[in-house]
Amino acid sequence: MDESDFEGTLVLEQLAAIDRVDDFFEAIDSDDFERAVSLMKKARIDAETISIVIKKMKNSDHKH
What is the dihedral of CA 54, 56, 1, 18, to 10 degrees? Predict the structure, then answer.
């Protein structure tokens, strides 16, 4: 997964609003699901969207 997977999405917009986009991508790069969820919750992203993002992370082929 990389930034293009999220480009122009509400996820990035809401993370940008709290200045945490870089932290979010670091969590993704290190497969830190807990941190990614925490950041998305802080950005007030809904549970359904968080679930989709985590599913994408788990299904990622780790190509960055």
Answer: -40
Distance of CA 46 to the CA centre of its chain: 12
Amino acid found at 9: T
Q: Residues 49, 40: contact at Cβ < 8 Å? A: yes
Q: How far apart are CA 38 and CA 34, in angstroms?
A: 6
pTM over 0.70: yes
- DSSP structure string for 1-64: --GGGTTT-HHHHHHHHTT-HHHHHHHHHTT-HHHHHHHHHHTT--HHHHHHHHHHHHH-----
pLDDT in tens, 45-61: 999 889 988 988 888 76
